[in-house]
Amino acid sequence: xxxxxxxxxxxxxxxxxxxxxxxxxxxxxxxxxxxxxxxxxxxxxxxxxxxxxxxxxxxxxxxxxxxxxxxxxxxxxxxxxxxxxxxxxxxxxxxxxxxxxxxxxxxxxxxxxxxxxxxxxxxxxxxxxxxxxxxxxxxxxxxxxxxxxxxxxxxxxxxxxxxxxxxxxxxxxxxxxxxxxxxxxxxxxxxxxxxxxxxxxxxxxxxxxxxxxxxxxxxxxxxxxxxxxxxxxxxxxxxxxxxxxxxxxxxxxxxxxxxxxxxxxxxxxxxxxxxxxxxxxxxxxxxxxxxxxxxxxxxxxxxxxxxxxxxxxxxxxxxxxxxxxxxxxxxxxxxxxxxxxxxxxxxxxxxxxxxxxxxxxxxxxxxxxxxxxxxxxxxxxxxxxxxxxxxxxxxxxxxxxxxxxxxxxxxxxxxxxxxxxxxxxxxxxxxxxxxxxxxxxxxxxxxxxxxxxxxxxxxxxxxxxxxxxxxxxxxxxxxxxxxxxxxxxxxxxxxxxxxxxxxxxxxxxxxxxx
Length: 514
What we know:
- The protein is an alpha+beta fold and 514 residues long.
- The chain has helices at residues 5-8, 41-45, 60-73, 86-107, 123-138, 142-169, 175-182, 205-216, 240-248, 263-272, 274-286, 324-343, 360-376, 397-406, 411-420, 451-458, 461-469, 491-510, and strands at residues 13-19, 33-39, 49-53, 110-113, 194-195, 201-202, 296-303, 316-321, 380-387, 424-430, 433-440, 473-478, 481-488.
- Helix 17 crosses helix 18 (491-510).
- Residues 1-28, 35-47 and 184-190 have low confidence and may be disordered.
């Protein structure tokens, strides 16, 4: 009997044929045959994706074995010194990342994502799933097959309910709000198609990837010329204490980036080889070099909560999962940038985001205080709230570098920032699949600890500039949220003030591509 060509072209199948008896007559000149298919388990295993290591499951013996293996690897590898080159910084960063991955591969338990990677999957479900398969293969008793399927679905529901109840029992504080988001059936749904602002639709993974990537990582349309300043002295402020503070301030529960190394893994490395991390951090800042191995990010698409239509592109946003090895350097640079911005008075008094000792709550409290003061004086107070659209994505590298130079920021920090924003690439993750790598031409990555302070520096002149033209108003900002407070004798007076603030704000922003 001839077989369909698709079956003959499947190299991972091995088959054996068994002719059947006459009681399976077809009523035609065709013979009925039965064949068994065996799937190559190595091919099936290739569909598993390792996304990290379960460090919590490491025993004391595992940890000692990992440390011993690391010590063997670094036995003949010297630390970076004060005279190292930029190429040596690149090589050290790449080696540390690869070596730590090899150590965890050899001693840690891998976290694999496959078809059965469900927290509610258990032995009972696996056995019932096998029973459903057996009944389907028999093709004799449809009632038994339906019964087996119903038992499988019941077992899955019970396991999910048990897992959900256990999760709710352990909730506390702000985590209750997160549980409410999980309960929203629209928040994580997979849609058949996406529609952008122009009405263009995307259905395949490739089409969705292109649409989401162009929205989240737009092309650079502001190639402002710049020249790098000479090296500075910021690297001399890098000590073991600053690096440790940067490392321990990060949560070990955050999702790992392309290198699969979480902050938990970096903390292990810190315990084993503190001096190596300190020297790498200091050398990277001294050379103004963000290693190339850390410039690849994974673009993860998440839903914006509370949207009515999740077939619309605007209902989603992307965040960048970055290398955690270099996030330590980014956190140290964040501290150095913040200290220098405060000392030099670069940031406006009205800026509350990305600054120590200030928060959005403080900004709101000051606005309320201004309103109370106006009421006591027999006046009224009004507020205009504005939002900077696509804030992080709109930062132009050349303009930021020139601004930092104009503000006379340290050369080490300016050079590192330029390297950090250059030659970046992204791999979008669409429906569980990693897509093709593409260059990122503009913006600061949403997911990096250094991005908020860089954006604060980029927009540092906005409030001061508007207040010079509209002296009756006060500006307050927190990252990309902006508010103008004005007082006056009547509503029309207050409205006229905030309208002028809005016009001046948009004028300032349009000149900078915001």
